[in-house]
Amino acid sequence: MKEIIDKLNKAFDHRVRLGIMSILMVNERVDFGTFKEMLDLTDGNLATHITALEKHGYLEVQKQFIGKKPNTSYAATPEGKTAFHEHLAALESLLNKNQ
């Protein structure tokens, strides 16, 4: 059991970071406003969790202007996708172990 728990990734412990990565697994790129709306978060709360994932190297950030408006979007890095898949596999193993 301990070896399964050790495979859980602490970067995905929080529901918001789990939500961010889940959204990015099915979308190539997502902008800040879409995350904010989908996860029902304040700017500051969302920014904090995005920064945490970015520090782990799980997200890449793209800043651009659309017309005259700034737009920040995010994509999961290959490392982020791998780490998230490994985390999900560990969760599945944990669930299957207890059945």
Structural account:
There is one protein chain. This protein is of the alpha+beta class and 99 residues long. The protein has five helices and three strands; from the N terminus they run H-H-E-H-H-E-E-H. The chain has one domain: Arc Repressor Mutant, subunit A. The chain has a three-stranded antiparallel beta sheet. Strand 2 and strand 3 form a beta hairpin. The chain is elongated.
Largest sheet entry: 3 strands, antiparallel
| Proper CATH architecture | Orthogonal Bundle
Q: Main sheet: which strands, in order across?
A: 1-3-2
- Superfamily (CATH H level) name: Winged helix-like DNA-binding domain superfamily/Winged helix DNA-binding domain
Tally of individual helices: 5
Specify Rg, calculated over alpha carbons: 15 Å
Structural class: alpha+beta
Strand content: 15-25%
- The percent of residues in helical segments reads 55-70%
Write the H/E string, N to C: HHEHHEEH
Layout of helices and strands, plus pairs?
Blueprint: H1 2-6, H2 15-26, E1 30-31, H3 32-39, H4 43-55, E2 59-66, E3 69-76, H5 78-97
Antiparallel strand pairs: 1-3, 2-3
Sum up the structure in keywords.
Arc Repressor Mutant, subunit A; 59% helix; 5 helices; 3 strands; three-stranded antiparallel sheet; alpha+beta; 99 residues
